[in-house]
Design goal:
single chain, seven-stranded parallel sheet, six-stranded parallel sheet, alpha/beta, Rossmann fold, elongated
C-alpha cells in the first residue's frame, strides 16, 4: 500500500478558456483533496482558467514552452520537471499534452499514465493526420487508461487506432451549473442587443468555424423567417475572421443583415441563454458540446445535428430534437415545430432540465475518475507484488 496520498499531475497545452480546460476547473472544484495531492502543469501559459485554478488552492506550474509536438525541448522540460517532482499519476489532456506528456512521463519512470481525448480527436481523423494517429497509437502502448469525453469518441478512437476497449474508458463530460447565473433582466438584455420583447430569438453559442456549421444555420434561419417573420438569430462565440467574412456574405445575399446579430465571445452565457426562445447547434463535428447541456439546464429547447456524442446528450423527441447534419430544411422544420407547439416544447424543456441535472453533475464524473485511479493503482501494486 502507498504510505502517502497519491500525487497526481494534470498536464495541459495551455489553460486559456476552452472546453477541456473549463472541465478541469470544474472537476478540481469537486475532487477529494484529502485523498489526492494534485498539481497542474501548462506548457504555454497559465491563462484565465489557470488563474481560477490557482484561486481555489491548486499549484499551477507553467513551462513557458510551445505545445506543438515538434518542439522536443518541451518534452525535455517536462521530463526534468517530473524528475524533480515525483508523481504517482500523470494525466494529460488534448493531443499536444498527450504527446509530450506521455513521452516525458515514461522516460521519467512515472508509474501510471492516463490520457484524455475530447472532440479534438475528430480533426485528426483524416489521411493528412496519419503521423498524429500513429503517434497516438504508439503512445497508447504505455498508457494505463485513455479517458474519452463520450462513448462516441471512445468507439471512434478504438476503431481508428485499433485499440482494445479495455484500454479506453468513457466518462461523460460535466457542466458547472453554478456558473449559470442570470445577472441582467431578460428584457434589459434584449434591449441592449436591439431586440424587442416580441422577437422570436433563435440562438447559437459556438466558436465560429467551418466545423460548427453556422452557414447551414443561416440557411435554415432563412426558412424559419419565412414561417415566423419575427424571428431573429444571435450567434455568440469566439470568431475566426475568415469564416465570419464568409457568413456575412451569405447573410447579405439572403438580405438578413438586420435579423442576425454576432455577439462575439461572452463571459456570462446565462444572460445570453435567457433571451433565447430556442437553441440550435448545427455542427458537422462534435464530441460532447456542453453548451447543449447548459441550454437544457436553462430551460431552452434544443435542436442539434446527429454528430459525435449528441445522442448521448439528447433523447430525440424527449429532451430535444436531433436532425441530420448539413440539412437546413430539417433544422428549420424542427425549429418551426418547437416554436409553434407549446405543449410539446414544455414537455421537452422539463425532461431536458431533469436529464441535465441527473447526468452531467461533477460529482458523478469525479466518482468515476476516482474509481479509475483506484483501479490502475491497485493493479500496479498487484503487479509489483508478483515481480
Amino acid at each position: 500500500m502507498l504510505n502517502h496520498k497519491p500525487k497526481i499531475l494534470f498536464v495541459h497545452p495551455s489553460l486559456d478558456y476552452g472546453g477541456a480546460e473549463d472541465q478541469r476547473l470544474t472537476i478540481l472544484r469537486h475532487i477529494n483533496r484529502e485523498k489526492y495531492d494534485i498539481s497542474i502543469c501548462s506548457f504555454e501559459g497559465v491563462g484565465d482558467i489557470g488563474k481560477q485554478i490557482e484561486k481555489i488552492g491548486f499549484k499551477v506550474h507553467c513551462l513557458n514552452k510551445p505545445s506543438n509536438p515538434y518542439h522536443i525541448l518541451t518534452t525535455f522540460s517536462l521530463f526534468r520537471y517530473l524528475l524533480k517532482n515525483r508523481y504517482d499519476i500523470v494525466q494529460t489532456s488534448l493531443f499536444n499534452a498527450n504527446f509530450h506528456g506521455r513521452i516525458a512521463a515514461k522516460l521519467a519512470g512515472i508509474p501510471h499514465i492516463i490520457s484524455e481525448e475530447h472532440s479534438e480527436h475528430y480533426q485528426y481523423n483524416t489521411a493528412r493526420f496519419l503521423p498524429y494517429i500513429w503517434a497516438d497509437k504508439m503512445l497508447s502502448i504505455f498508457t494505463d487508461k485513455i479517458i474519452c469525453c463520450s462513448k462516441s469518441v471512445m468507439d471512434s478512437i478504438s476503431e481508428l487506432e485499433r485499440l482494445p476497449k479495455n484500454k479506453l474508458q468513457a466518462i461523460l463530460s460535466v457542466v458547472n451549473f453554478n456558473k449559470l447565473k442570470i445577472t441582467i433582466d431578460r428584457e434589459e438584455m434584449r434591449h441592449r442587443l436591439g431586440l424587442s420583447r416580441s422577437d422570436i430569438v433563435v440562438g447559437n453559442i459556438a466558436t465560429i468555424s467551418p466545423r460548427k456549421g453556422q452557414d447551414v444555420l443561416i440557411k435554415a434561419f432563412k426558412l424559419i423567417r419565412e414561417s415566423l417573420p419575427g424571428a431573429k438569430l444571435i450567434i455568440a462565440g469566439r470568431e475566426d475572421a475568415q469564416t465570419k467574412e464568409g457568413l456575412l456574405k451569405l447573410i447579405k445575399e439572403f438580405n438578413l443583415s438586420k435579423d442576425i446579430v454576432f455577439l462575439g465571445k461572452q463571459e456570462n452565457l446565462a444572460n445570453i441563454f435567457n433571451i433565447m426562445n430556442i437553441f440550435i447547434l448545427s455542427s458537422f463535428i462534435e464530441g460532447i458540446p456542453l453548451t447543449v447541456v447548459e441550454a437544457m439546464y436553462m430551460n431552452i429547447p434544443v435542436i442539434a445535428t446527429d454528430v459525435g456524442g449528441l445522442r448521448e446528450i439528447i433523447e430525440d423527441g424527449k429532451t430535444g430534437m436531433i436532425v441530420s447534419p448539413n440539412n437546413p430544411q430539417s433544422i428549420a422544420e424542427a425549429a418551426i415545430d418547437l416554436l409553434s407547439n407549446n405543449i410539446k416544447t414544455t414537455h421537452i424543456v422539463q425532461n431536458a432540465k431533469e436529464s441535465a441535472l441527473n447526468r452531467f453533475i461533477p460529482q458523478r464524473y469525479v466518482s468515476e475518475l476516482e474509481k479509475c485511479y483506484d483501479s490502475i493503482m491497485s493493479n500496479g501494486l498487484s503487479n509489483n507484488s508478483h515481480e
